[in-house]
Amino acid sequence: MTQILIVDDEEKLRHLLSMMLERKGIKTHKAIHGANALEMLENNSYDLIISDIKMPVMDGRQLISKMREKNILTPVIFITAFATVESAVEMMQQGACDYITKPFDSVKIYLAVEKAINLSRLITENQEMKQALSGAEKSKNLIYKSKAMQDVVALADNVATVDTAVLILGESGTGKEVLANYIHNKSTRCDKRFVAVNCAAISSNLVESELFGYEKGAFTGAAARTRGRFEFSDSGTLFLDEIGDMPLDSQGKLLRALQEKKLQRVGGNEEIPVDVRVICATNQNLGQMVMNKKFRQDLYYRINVFPIEIPPLRLRKEDIVPLAKHIITTFSFGAEHQLSEDACAKLMEYPWPGNVRELANVLERCLILTRDTQKITSQTLSFLQVAQPASPAQHTVIRLPSSGIPLQQVQMSLVKQALDKSGNNQTYAAKLLGISRSKFRVLLKNMEPDQ
């Protein structure tokens, strides 16, 4: 939802602007002067600021000057009681993107806001592009030593220079997004955007608007036309992580976009051509999901042209120490830290159910614990406990008390304990409970508050 900060010392004007904007589904916040607004800007982000010029404590000109000093690039619309060519030029020189003269009507407000919101999106996209380009060099090289990863990288190098659809398979935390970024940076699209979307993190009713964008007025809160991830990654690479969690009805629309290389925004009729390379990833068995009618067969064939499977960390132990040493250097407070030989041995013994992600979390904890000594030893890693999967041959007898026991609470407790012991790896947690991953996901779903 669009967020706008209104800055004015007059309560009536703040209230009037807020009512006008919230009728259009825009969320508004209010500040009584520039200093108040600056404090809010340091702790929150907004799409736009509408500010009066003359205010006590800190006026509009001082506010925008302070914003530029702190590199806060949020667009500003000034409110003024008069407007001449000279005053308009002065306001633009101060850094305002537009101005509104008093008295104003709703039409003027909406037009100015729509124009400024589009500018805000361009600024955000530009910042994201700079961040992506600055981090691209770091993503070109993968850290590995094992033969298994050598084979993975060889496959990635082979497919990088052609626009073939790639499906990256592997457990959670193995580095699927890192490999996708590697393929992008080795491709002819390396100077364009790499856009990552986690399909599991998007609400099912927002998937289409997130991927394809939407037209103004398409639904409540759609205050302006918005590009989706496909358009945003045009000429570049779109990485769809956890593709197995995409709703079935959205899968059909994704398939059409991949086949036709065209899309329609939500609420629109115009067909928009897009040139995007799509790389998908999943930790699920899509073939089994197809058989269970939970994933479209035609989409599966479309994205599974060139599958690459990343082995879990426990099956490529030669990579653990090189990865650990590299991860340590990525932390600003870890540059001088060292890994002792016994620490390396301990890292090699652990099965890493959470894979590289768990390794990074463990090392971050170790760096904090050893800020004084700057040396990680096996003693530092004493909190690592190797969890043993439940054996089918083992029979645990739980005595039922005469007063009874709430079965659902017992299940919830066991699920939480399994997640804790497995580093939140669902596959390994399911093994600890002696059940399939799909059954474990059902138990997790039953634990959700809305169930």
Automatic annotation (TrEMBL):
The keyword Nucleotide-binding applies. SUPFAM superfamilies: CheY-like, Homeodomain-like, P-loop containing nucleoside triphosphate hydrolases. Keywords: ATP-binding, DNA-binding, Nucleotide-binding, Phosphoprotein, Transcription, Transcription regulation, Two-component regulatory system. Pfam families: AAA_lid_14, HTH_8, Response_reg, Sigma54_activat. One of its GO terms (molecular function) is sequence-specific DNA binding. Residues 142-368 form the Sigma-54 factor interaction domain. The modification 4-aspartylphosphate is found at D52. Gene3D superfamilies: 1.10.8.60, 3.40.50.2300, Homeodomain-like (1.10.10.60), P-loop containing nucleotide triphosphate hydrolases (3.40.50.300). It comes from the Bacteria. The keyword Ion transport does not apply. Residues 3-117 form the Response regulatory domain. One of its GO terms (biological process) is phosphorelay signal transduction system. This is Response regulator with CheY-like receiver, AAA-type ATPase, and DNA-binding domains. It comes from Desulfobacter postgatei 2ac9. The lineage of its organism: Bacteria, Pseudomonadati, Thermodesulfobacteriota, Desulfobacteria, Desulfobacterales.
